[in-house]
Amino acid sequence: MLKQALATALVAAPFGLLAAGTASAQTPVCEVDRPVVFAGLDWDSSYFHNAVAGFILEHGYGCGTETSPGSTIPLLNAMARGAVDITMEMWIPNVRDVWDQAVARGRVVEVGVNFPDATQKWYVPKYLVEGDDAPAAGLTSVEDLAKYKDVFADPEEPDKGRFFNCILGWGCEVINTKKLHAYGLDDSYTNVRPGTGAALSAAIESHIQRNQPIVFYYWGPTWVLGKFADRIVALDEPDYDPKIWSALIAASNPEDVDKATAYPLVEVSIAVSTEFQEVAPKIVEFLSNYQTTNEMVSEALAYMRDNNATADEAAIHFLQQNPDIWTGWVPDEVAATVKTALEQT
User: Are 297 and 113 in contact (CB under 8 A)?
Assistant: First the structure.
């Protein structure tokens, strides 16, 4: 979903570097004699996971870390070449062809599941649908949206409702446009495609904080779902059907799509280069144990948003608040050194 070309420069890790091989008897020694390189995918949850894993690698395993910024396909190719060691969010279904080719060549491997429940849905605020006096009381399904178009009236085309789609240029925008046609909403809703993710999230936040009507697409984990999860409700769609989904994806024109289905629940993996897997078995074992959830990460991202915090600061907050979670990912001696580092932060 991201089009930015791979930048070649490497960016220093948030917590600085430790020189491998120079540690004392009391400090851990990294398995590799160079910085570990993370894929710097350009969205918030990726920044957060890189910061959490980076803090643990630095303080628990004695490793320096770096981040190579870019988007999905270029960074996957870089990992296949051995230029990137770890991708904390590998959305395999979104890059199936390139991923399968890299696996077939023995260049990359999935080592764990970061979160098993990434979601994509259409939402409305609860204040629109809950209670007898709610302006859209009775709205529960996307198939009912046409009946409530006046509630979501577009100021520029008042005879239509306004649907806030995904970001222009992303795959989800194309899918939602096909869904609008399949659900028979082309004639009753304008298809609003924000130019940036920030523009979409700002529109959602603004409408909800002012109790205004809005129907929108969103995905998780994100700060939007973390902040507003208890104030929005997902509209029902037909249960996910792989055959209908495949036909929807394959269609070139939205006008050709007459059936749609809910987005599949996506399992987001952690992947490494096979080269790195061979030289860093202890780190790979940590990564195979690393597991979060959509809700957990959305809450961390909401913390970032509400406190104007960096991903590094959110990672430290997460590690300080959730020792029962992350200590299960690492051996006791690693957990002890990470805890000491957190106490000194």
Answer: no
